[in-house]
Amino acid sequence: MAVKSGYRRALDIRRGVVDMTHGSGGRATADLIRELFAKHFSNDYLNEGHDGAVMPPMTNPVAVSCDAHVVKPLFFPGGDIGSLAVCGTVNDVAVCGAKPLYIAATFILEEGFPLADLDRIVGSMAEAAREAGVLVVTGDTKVVEKGHGDGIYITTTGIGEKLTEHSISGRAARPGDRILVSGTMGDHGTAILSQRENMSFGTTIESDSAPLNRMVEAILEAAPNTHVLRDPTRGGLVTTLNEIAVQSSVGMLLDESKIPVRPEVAAACEFLGLDPLYVANEGKLIVIVPENEVEAALAAMRSDPYGTNAAEIGVVTEENAGRVEMTTLMGGRRNVDWLEGEQLPRIC
Amino acid sequence: MAVKSGYRRALDIRRGVVDMTHGSGGRATADLIRELFAKHFSNDYLNEGHDGAVMPPMTNPVAVSCDAHVVKPLFFPGGDIGSLAVCGTVNDVAVCGAKPLYIAATFILEEGFPLADLDRIVGSMAEAAREAGVLVVTGDTKVVEKGHGDGIYITTTGIGEKLTEHSISGRAARPGDRILVSGTMGDHGTAILSQRENMSFGTTIESDSAPLNRMVEAILEAAPNTHVLRDPTRGGLVTTLNEIAVQSSVGMLLDESKIPVRPEVAAACEFLGLDPLYVANEGKLIVIVPENEVEAALAAMRSDPYGTNAAEIGVVTEENAGRVEMTTLMGGRRNVDWLEGEQLPRIC
């Protein structure tokens, strides 16, 4: 390893592990920040080296969202806890109708966690942040004793600026509006569970984890009267739609035949006893728009690499306020209720 | 317990515990948010019920800071993990020379954690937020299996607006500047360790955990040319001053006799083999100002309830750049270096 004269690396990233000193706030913490975090996240705000970051004024309304990430396993097909932590929060800010700009990240590390894994995870975060066009501007690291964590928990808080004048909100769905999704349902949760249970279904099921902020910008440009944007994560499509139905005091009628689900995900879910409409997504949008903006919104979604399978799946109704119904493949109609209890723990 | 007609509480806060369903994103998560979090944190932004919160534009530069909190024990004299999580982040934003406005909070809960403890902790957060004048505007909850946490880990991210035109930063200390502290050193860490080790020193040592944003406002009004503001948390006074000395490429000379330390903290530290100047504070400021603003800054600090013991403790020097020296009680002069290794794990 090349070492600059007069400077010796303090971390052995290839073979070293996290120890309690890395969370002490002393020299070992400074080494970890300099040789690992700053290497990946370098930007003017972070490099200031203060406990906090100072950024320019934000002249539009400010959107903030945060998520703790405890996904198990840490690495899975299509991503890892690092990319997930950035994409999840980028998407939560984007669905406020906002452009995400900054991320604050905290790390709770378990003593003994390999520095090589941490380096890979932080590298994934940086790559996802570059793709989304956001900067990781400040952070914090704590270390807990072996046996008091699961290697790494990551919390991310995203900050962005509103793109629209009007409120994009779960309270804004109106009877007659159409319900769109940006692609196939259930990919992320099914990928995690297959990985966790060591199941193989002939083909590897990949998480859909992806930053959706550029798709949101395109939708809001094409369909400026968009009423609701949501990312159907934990609890999946149906739980998120139930939340919106309650918040907007409207009913919803879905057409099961229109809801895109990958065949391999459907097969895996059947095997696992799951319903893909209740399984978490990490790279999909629910978009609720007035009927006259359906085509524009769909075209905007389909022009994005993460929206090629976008589809209209249902309609907002005046009747059955607070409830979601679905016309099934069999032609019947049934109530599709909230997720009860725990379906998939530690999915994000 | 009074129950509104037609509404039955889903949570038994007095006797219930956290279970995996509370992190699923389904109905149990919604119950926990409504009956526990929203009860304490109610405000217009949070009540919108979106995944994120939308706030007005911020016309001054924006300051952001975040901290993960893993303190053990969760409850200690002078505070708990909840008040600490709010005060710590409020202070990190304030020392950017900013007025903290909003908090985003994530909770990683361990299966089996008593809801009564969670309710008490969230209540403490709300009380600290009220005192500081900040709003908890958005949050997230995850649950991990029993044995994979320590009851509760809390991450808070604070967002505020700059109060000054110029940069308040660890890079801004200048030779000739004076070094002030707002009160006694080492109280928080000593309180935690005494509690953890079940030690009693005749009197209960209390954490100094407190929101310092109002004191910061007073200082910046009285001493507008303040160069550096810091809260000496992990690693204590000496580690923080070493960081500033490196960042500003200056030396520092402290006068040990001027540094306020409570006698009971000094006694406890001696017993525990600690140096209070390396022990974490959670309600104290380091303030570095030009000589002609010393009296104004000290007066501003002393007029605040958390600054009654404010003192001038040293001077910034041109020589010994990057190092901190101290004239000891014995009259000698010694180098006081960074904290090496782990002094006090899980202190915040």
UniProtKB/TrEMBL annotation, chains A, B:
Segments forming domain PurM-like N-terminal: 49-160
Domain of life per record: Bacteria
PANTHER family: CARBAMOYL DEHYDRATASE HYPE, HYDROGENASE ISOENZYMES FORMATION PROTEIN HYPE
InterPro entries in alphabetical order: HypE, PurM-like_C_dom, PurM-like_C_sf, PurM-like_N, PurM-like_N_sf
Pfam families: AIRS, AIRS_C
NCBIfam families: hypE
GO BP term, pick one: protein maturation
Domain PurM-like C-terminal: 174-325
The family this protein is said to belong to: Belongs to the HypE family.
Record's signal peptide: none
SUPFAM superfamilies documented for this protein: PurM C-terminal domain-like, PurM N-terminal domain-like
Protein name: Hydrogenase expression/formation protein HypE
